[in-house]
Amino acid sequence: MTQLTKAEEQVMQILWSLGEGIVQDVRQAFPDPKPSRNTISTVIRILEQKGFVEHKAYGRTYLYFPKVAKAEYTKKQMFSMIHNYFNGSFASMASFFVKENDLSMTELDELLSQIKRNIDH
């Protein structure tokens, strides 16, 4: 799966949130200053070429929707990050984030509880 540019990822985050939308819907979801309609349209066309977005045509209007689920993209990006930056070790990644974010014992306990709940399911 191709990694997205920052602009592509911003558009995908909006489409994942909306579920579907026309270019104007995506533009309205951006904070000010909003990118131009043409910029968003170009990014969406690139996302279609990369296989992340599909559309349905309604006359001259296109309704865009994600072809790749957010969870699927997130999973692949996380595994890629763990592989590329932490030699494939989840423990090394977790240790790095604990150290960099100066987590308290309470936060670590909560993290461990969440991990245990996910393992049990």
Task: Write up this protein.
The chain is 64% helix and 10% strand. The chain is mainly α. It folds into 2 domains: 61 residues, Orthogonal Bundle (Arc Repressor Mutant, subunit A), CATH 1.10.10; 51 residues, no CATH class. β1 and β2 form a beta hairpin. It has a two-stranded antiparallel sheet.
Structure characteristics:
transcription regulation; 2 strands; BlaI_family; elongated; DNA binding; mainly alpha; 2 domains; 121 residues; single chain; two-stranded antiparallel ribbon
Write the layout of secondary structure elements.
Elements: H1 6-18, H2 23-29, H3 37-49, E1 53-58, E2 61-66, H4 70-85, H5 90-101, H6 105-120
Antiparallel strand pairs: 1-2
- Written as H for each helix and E for each strand, in order along the chain, the element string is HHHEEHHH
Shape estimate: elongated
The CATH topology of the largest domain is: Arc Repressor Mutant, subunit A
Main beta sheet: 2 strands, antiparallel
Give the helix proportion (percent range).
55-70%
The CATH class assignment of the largest domain is Mainly Alpha
Quaternary structure annotation? single chain
CATH superfamily caption of the largest domain: Winged helix-like DNA-binding domain superfamily/Winged helix DNA-binding domain
Structural class: mainly alpha
Q: If classified by CATH, what would the architecture of the largest domain be?
A: Orthogonal Bundle
Tell me the strand order in the biggest sheet.
1-2
What distance lies between the first and last C-alpha atoms, to the nearest angstrom?
Answer: 27 Å
Which residue ranges are poorly predicted, with pLDDT under 50 across at least 5 consecutive positions?
Answer: none
Number of separate structural domains: 2
| Computed Rg | 18 Å
The helix tally amounts to 6
Strand content: 5-15%
Number of strands: 2
Q: Mean pLDDT, nearest integer?
A: 94
GO molecular function: DNA binding
Family: Belongs to the BlaI transcriptional regulatory family.
Pfam family, one: Penicillinase_R
InterPro entries: BlaI_family, WH-like_DNA-bd_sf, WH_DNA-bd_sf
